[in-house]
């Protein structure tokens, strides 16, 4: 229950008015930004990703999820107006997951907009892209039917794409996570803070410590063989389905499946785990396809 | 008339009072009360005993003073020093404390009773400064060494050690925060006046704090101490910055006391973790999220000669702190901060207090300063009547901190009329302050002066408070 301030005190306080100065907000500049950005000012959307391994060579992130959305934006033709930055920690991202897309203050003509910059989680990126493309022009090779079919040749292909995405995000994703070298030592775990985003553990794992141990279970002694077997089968199926087509499922243009497939193939070919890398390189058409799409995407990112 | 008849006549002429057994045969002297069992009698007896003892004590002291005063120039030399009762203290540590006081202050003259008494007093003070003993009684004794001369004397310090383990728990409510804490301390942990202290606290703003510290004297004078500590803190900033901050750090410090004041030089390495952001957190707060490491050297100087912090009559308080970060880690800056306060009596029962503080943070690389390193301003501890840490640059309602600030406060505190002994005091105050960022496009001095200059009329607040 609040007590109202006495009127004499209100009159006295009115002699010292409180002013709040509203400055136009702009992202502070850092060195963790793409060197080829056309500008870091408030006029350009910014995609926050996990850092690339070598920004001077490639702006593709080391994280599969970020590569997916980088590929999606590039293949849909909107990445030229987007800056890439990697100075946002996953803990600062919405739902603690990168990538996030920052939209600048929209400055309308002769009107200072009230709306400040908005940060979008990855699930809202497609609707933003649709809005951007709908405001400007329809991308080449697409018509309204393509938009309903999401770029696939027919409904069956669109439905089939869901299955392929599921395959990529289970078997291949499991193999990449199980073989990732991000294993912290016990000492490092003691002095650092726990990561809020616990990566999904692949199946068939066991911790280093027993359930009856006084030490909190940590680490993971992964049983890798069955995971690699399923990974190899998934790659084989992917290669057979791609064949010699320009895009997956015979689509006329790039689709969401192509973005997802590129992300996982790129991560597999760049993996530090030899078996993952060698298994992916067995499939020539996949390697060629990945290289072609990567060149296209990189050209878009290095605008 | 026969003899028997004479006796009978005498008896009948002067009747004798016959008393039964156990009758009182007292003849009181010296003002002794009549009633044997009265409380006055007991009290009188007690007072008489005390008078006698006091008289004996006075006469003994008088005789001792005469004895000492008349023999101050008697040649006397300390042959041995014993410290009894210090069972948990290392002999080497005690030797380090005592040794500086064994040298003859005047080498040209032979030691006398007077110099021995002075040395005894200094050694007693030195042992008291260790804070290990609750009772120290020095005695001059005849030397036990058969080879000692007649001018030799042993000094025996009979000590009673303090308890080594202390446990304390407390609950505190104030400054918008409520905390419950527990503290355990081991005094003289390793026999050299080391203190090993551990504390745990839980609260509303400071979610939890864990601290373990080991401190030990580095010199025999006990004026210089070293400390190693490790801590983990979790602060809740949801109310003003939509996030939480976790800290894990270690600190090594050396502090000493000189005629100017207290000095401390320390090195600190601390991991800061901004986490648990609210959904509506601003982009500035989101960009601050994650883990950063600060590795820094710190110097703090405190000069405090006040007789009272709030209602003082003399003295002043001055504190200066400087920090240099960049010895590895993510932070690289130079930070200075100063604080001063003075309090004087204006009239009987009315005191005025003037306090001021300012700080400057300068980033040594070209990157913006980190949220955890920036100054925050506002709240009952600096600028009253402003929400906690709410002054300065903001982004969507989140305070982001600043690189430079100043704050001043003038207070009048007095006694309630006729109730000077009450702890309840009326308090009138005026506070003002500003927090801002540094424009790195201009020279350091000019931009720091301009950006913290007097453009803050309107950011000040006044208030009337009743405080205890």
Automatic annotation (TrEMBL), chain A:
Organism superkingdom: Eukaryota
InterPro entries: Glutathione-S-Trfase_C_sf (IPR036282), Metaxin_GST (IPR033468)
Pfam families: GST_C_6
Domain Metaxin glutathione S-transferase: 232-293
Protein's name in the database: Metaxin glutathione S-transferase domain-containing protein
Source lineage: Eukaryota, Fungi, Dikarya, Basidiomycota, Agaricomycotina
Automatic annotation (TrEMBL), chain B:
Keyword Acyltransferase: no
Keywords: Membrane, Transmembrane, Transmembrane beta strand
Residues spanning the signal sequence: none
A biological-process GO annotation: protein insertion into mitochondrial outer membrane
Residue span of region Disordered: 1-33
Similarity annotation: Belongs to the SAM50/omp85 family.
Subcellular location: Mitochondrion outer membrane
Keyword Cell membrane annotated: no
Domain (Bacterial surface antigen (D15)): residue spans on this chain: 188-438
One Gene Ontology term, aspect cellular component: mitochondrial outer membrane
Topology versus the membrane: Multi-pass membrane protein
Protein name: Bacterial surface antigen (D15) domain-containing protein
